[in-house]
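hi support,

uploading two proteins for the ticket. first:
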Amino acid sequence: MLQVNIIQMKRKNLKSLFILLILIFFYSKNLYCQFEAGIISTLEATYPDKNNIKFKQTFSYNIPQNADFEALILIKSKSNKTFTINSKSKNLNNINYSVIKPVPVEENTGVDSRTEQFLGQINSDVIRRAPFEVFEVIEPLTINEIKTVSNFSLLRISVKSIEFKRTGNFKLNIVLNDGFKNEELKFKIKIHNASIPKLQESKFFYTNWFNLSKMEEMHDLKRWNKEWFVMLDKYAKLMAEGRQNCIRIPHELINLKSNKISLDEEKMISFINIFKKYGFKYFESPHLLNRGSNDDWGNPELKTKLRKRGYYSEDGKKEIDTIIRKIKSFTKKYKLENQWLQHIADEPTDVNAQCYKDVSKQIKSIYPKITIMEATNAKESLTGSIDLWCPLINDFQENQDFFKKRVKEGEKILVYTCLVPGGKWLNRTLDMERIRQVYFGWAGSKYNTFGYLHWGLNQYKANPFNQSVVKHPSPQASSNNYLPAGDTHIIYPGKDGPLSSLRFEAHRQGIEDYELLEKLKLKNSNKHKRLIKKLFINYTNYSLSINKYQRIRKKLLKSI
């Protein structure tokens, strides 16, 4: 009897052990495959380490005609996990997938400009206290898989506008699978009757200054060879997709050869034609003069770029005369008179304003129809010398009466930002809300400004994947003068070409909004004003609510 009991006890113990092992197995399996995924707005700031975002399994999108569909999926899981991605749709076939890579933010943007260390003041108007990493770079996936490398991963879904054959409603489901579990996310897309014009028909001027040397450095290229032109084409295509429609002419194409000024016509038109192919409308000529070899802001006389002579010298005036006559001949030959924008000297001040005006007068005497464009610091002292003014947004907002007078005189206004301004001002540094980039389009429509300029398309001073805050390159910059995160660039160098960013895409969305707002302005100016006022008052007073923005944008689409 005792023996029987012992046997029964052993059996019970083995059974319990077996059950325990099964429970452990299933618990481990469930623990392993546990993940969350949800749809978020393309304007939402997200991070690889932590996020306080409510996951949504369904999301509605309202899109104009001729605009791409874009969405983001945030995945919370363990690292080193692989997810397969599959789509379900009756009408949409070519679905594009990209992984969003993070970049570092070492310091926060300053209250006034630069970084916080410049004035030693804390900026409360940032998305997060530095240091941190933020999702930014859009890297296309070659296969329908994503491998996690941190607590959170960010996936981008996009569909080209050509896939939407009609207006109306579309459905798209995306299924994520980690080998154990499916997560299905549902996208409801409505294509409205309102449409975005082609780039060559755009009313918004948009330029980011392109650094050819950095393109060559990042992709190991030699200038003007076949491979160089292939890569240039890729950069032009990406810029055009971001609604950029203006490009700077390489300064080397106007040069000194055997002490004679030369314009390299063949290379210049080859360069221009690459961008014209994608709908570019404007071409910025290189600056003719600068503040001197040591960036001397206190010198009232500007120095010529080529011979480095003071403007008022015989050689200085002769240099300007020769260059402008060559530009006049070139633009007339290739019918570029209305597309050519002539720079004189960057950011003229009251100190050198008279010299600037004298140069402008000389240029106009040779080529009366040429358009002179400049990013400016001075105002009244430059009156009569500039056709296309480009003040900083804070300068514009604080001096609107002056710029309104310029418009009455037949001149045009666009705005720019750089390392300035910081705080609540609209700008595009990495620690600012991406909706701020969108509002550049809304501001343009409200203020009747012509467009937007930024100096940093790819002006890298370090590897942009590893470092976002860099020392100011000017010889006169103080030891605490640093460019804020992402100021030097808004696109990134990929293995086979340039990569877009969430900031670049937000800018594009704002420009698309501008095109829609301008249509509404013609149709119903009062409604146009009311809609803008609901979101944007001025460059420091605007709504940060993404939900509110989406509601008002839907009203905008339905109003056209």
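and the second one:
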Amino acid sequence: MKTARRVVKEEVFPLKNHRKILAAVASIAAIASLTACGGVKDANTAKRAAATTRTTRLDAAITIGTTDKITSVDPAGSYDNGSYAVQIQIFPFLYAQDYNTSELSPDIAADDGTWNDDGTEFTVKIKEGLKFANGHDLTASDVKFSYDRIKTINDANGPSSLLANVESVEAPDDTTVVFKDSVPFDVTLKQVMSSPAGPIVDEEVFDADKLTDADTIVKGNAFAGPYKLTAFKMNETASYEKNDSYKGLTPAKNDAIQVKYFADASNLKLNVQQGQIDVAFRSLTPTDIEDLSKDSKVKVVKGPGGEERFLTFNFKIQPYGESQSDADANKAKAVRQAVANLIDRDELSKKVYKGTYTPMYSFIPDGLSGHDDTLKATYGDGEGKPDAAKAKKVLEDAGVSTPVDLKLQYNGDHYGSSSADEYAAIKSQLEADGLFKVDLQQTEWTQYNKERVVTEDSDGSYPVYQLGWFPDYSDPDNYLSPFFRDGNFVNNGYSNKEVNDLIVKQAGEKDATKREEILKQVQALETEDLSTIPLLQGAQVAVTGTNIKGVVLDASFRFRYASVTKS
């Protein structure tokens, strides 16, 4: 497959391959020259010096701890914060955010891009002379390849839903990329380029039509971001070294990073307290953060959130779901609406999360255009509190027998150990008045993330389940398209043509007032459908040693290792 891909590439980009052939010839000649001149000894000396330098880098490495699990190093196979935390360090993007801003700037792009007259094509020039760490040229061909393979692979856990508006990507020459977009003057396109769908990978290392494993990526040194990933053991350790060939927006201010993955938050807390790690990021419990804020040996760093916690309904296997023997769309909706009437978000916020998460009654969080607390007005007592009588009536009117058997799934290793308390509280809220009987279960994250989704071959395994969302970009679209558009990230079997069309429409609406109106229309429809139920929104929190500087948690919603320094 790779051989065939390279042949195609030669047909389209003969100059790129010609340069590579010349470079290879030059390398052979250089080796021959070294041998002829007795230069092998010098070469070995250089290797030893390089090894010594690398050891020095690792000894001075900044150590970061997390409980956030990785699904895939390959951008086409993941759409979760743990995986993205790796990818933003090692892969470049066309556009990204500089520190302390949500505005986009060129990363490896050379300009801000331009639309054609009818808004159907967006042209981006990329910087000349870009290289991957392995020496391969990074050209427009690699950009096209990176976007094409995400759509081709279309992995159930991948970010292909973000590219729904992108019809095609062309590379007419080495430094020009043309995006053809189905939405004229798409206001979300550049944001998508900075999202989990945007990492640029090496077409000579990655497969075009299937996921590439981490070992192949590491051995291939296929990196063009601020760092190279030099050693990797899935969800145990990752070693990063500064990539000197990176020509993007945020070059590394340190030489090396070590990341350790913890099974639980208590060990993460202990390690940062004892100075065994320099930074703890995702996911300490609210109690841990409260305790650590009183500890003089560490610093607590907070930043804007945008994180959302929500319940998801599987439309295939929820009670009265589409693939159930007693399938009934009206009864299924009544179950969802009854749940919404019984949830007490304030209790979850105060008793479980000690205010580190706040109640969320909108599909778009506070601070973004289109925010509208429709869930508070529509469900419960109208003020944010539950209403059991209202829930009972909804079920009775639909002819639903009670108690409703509800299988509810959650995950504590990815969403934090407080999830156990959160979902125990939700179980109690739903069962308090005898309307539901809840079977509460927990599953390990990597299994959870695979089993939750509805695919062509599976209806998924969890009727109702916990999900969280950490935004890809600071735009209300990122709380709508990945959730409710056809082919969405949630993959819960939900589809509503009116909702889908409105989401497409808002993406191309340049008038801010008109766009906000459309955003509110989408939320009104979703308030009725309830394919998901937003519960809470939270902030970003990191805990560091007192000798650590430069941890930036901003509205980019990225924790970039590049800014961190240690004295």
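thanks. also noticed: Residues 227 and 243 are 5 Å apart (CA to CA).
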